[in-house]
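Handoff note, outgoing to incoming analyst
You'll be picking up this chain. Sequence as last confirmed:
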Amino acid sequence: MTEGFEQGVEAANYVGAVRPRMVLALAAKLAVSTALVLGLLSAGAVALVGTGADTAEEPAAFARMEMGEKLALVARVKPSVVRVVARTCEGRTDGTAFAASGVLFTNRHVIEGADLAKVDNGDSLATVEVVGRMTTSDVAWLASPNGIASLDVRQSAPDAGEPVVVFGFQGRDRLVARDGLVQLVTEDGSAYGVEGGIALLDVGTAPGFSGGPVVGRDGTVVAMLQGFDETTGLSIAIPVDELPAHPLNVEADTNKDNKDFRSTCQ
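Most recent structure output, in case you need it:
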């Protein structure tokens, strides 16, 4: 398991600049890792946990990101990440979405059976429409509220060994960013019950991360989080080449005209 850093942001304050007042403290040694904790003490503070060091086996092109690089990446990406709440076939669900290509991308299972969802951008709570969903993959997209900047999406899947940062909501109140490496990229995700390609990441995720962006060191989205494999401890992500390049024009299954979401539930 690759060791990394973690950033937590209270939902009410995560959009906006990282506050400058920062305190460093050493965390206790847990298992085989030693964590360096950087915390902001004010409300809505960012907490960063960075561990590990570069290994000689890693190619130079894929050297791990330095802490300053990670901080800059987080500041750049977090205004485009929102929390999603929907009433679905399973009841209330919480997930993550990110703005790209003029919409908010998330997992289909986060909004399955819903025609509307609530999104929290840190400043306000908005109700948005479910615009479309793929019939053959766990991908859906919502209307994007005004004022949320779109992230750039890479034109191809990530490379094995590439360092990435993932974003997701841990519980209902906290946006978290964690880093790690892409362990495997394959066009056949059937072993994990996934149609199409997948990427496996050695980044720990939690319920609520579904639909969160996986971002490369250049700031582009390279994949979208989908789930977690309990056997291997790896996170499962959908590479960007599995996402529609033009979601507002693509022919996709959608239930946006179905005002009673229960009628789509079995």
